[in-house]
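Practice problem: predict the structure.
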Amino acid sequence: VHIVESGGGLVQPGGSLRLSCTTSGFTLKDYAVGWFRQAPGKQREGIAAIKGRDGSTNYADSVKGRFTISGDDAKGTVYLQMNGLKPEDTAVYYCALEYFGLGGLENPYEYEYWGQGTQVTVSS
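Answer:
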């Protein structure tokens, strides 16, 4: 099984990026997929999640209205569209899967499978 994040990079404030979480060996309908981020010196923060069974989504207040999570079961990929990026969004972004999960954002330890992360830097 593999999980690979991609799409990170350097972007100016107000810009956009789309992150991809490409999986293999998983049936995404059986998982909740979450996006987490961790900035230097800070705890890992859950920012968005999607439940495979019904497609329901969950967002942290810090990204609500700016970020959108979506999934393509056929491609085994979950996306995170990030608009209106701010310098405080700078972090390593991780994708994680929880088997038959509820898509919670409070406890990263509920997620069993993790990717290696992709760096997002928002700076002028």
